[in-house]
Specification:
The chain is an alpha+beta fold. It has 2 domains: about 1-35, no CATH class; about 35-85. The chain has 2 helices and 4 strands; from the N terminus they run H-E-E-E-H-E. The chain has helices at about 25-35, 70-75; strands spanning about 35-45, 45-55, 60-65, 80-85. The protein has a 4-stranded antiparallel beta sheet with strand order 3-2-1-4. The longest helix has 10 residues, at about 25-35. It is globular.
């Protein structure tokens, strides 16, 4: 059986939890197949959602972006962020 990623208060599935999956192998397959992610974050109470490319390196998600962009400057401050990956 595949190793499970720990469920936290922030990641607990509330709506139709039987459709979710916390198996590391399944999550990695989705991340490895997808090309684009959407990164959500807030700066001064203003929400932003930016589509961007990404890659998975081991357990790390590497997000593409210019060091001069608002997104990358904000993420460098270690703010809370939401990343959504969708497969077609």
């Amino acid at each position: 059986m595949s190793e499970q990623i720990a469920v936290t208060a922030r990641t607990k599935l509330k709506r139709i939890p039987k459709r979710g999956n916390f198996e590391r192998e399944t999550i990695y397959k989705i991340l490895d197949e997808a090309i684009v992610c959407h990164v959500g974050f807030a700066v001064d109470n203003q929400p932003f959602v930016i589509p961007t490319s990404f890659a998975r390196i081991g357990d790390r998600l590497v997000i593409h972006g210019s060091a001069a962009s608002r997104m990358m400057r904000s993420l460098s401050k270690e703010i809370e962020v939401c990343v959504t990956v969708t497969l077609n």
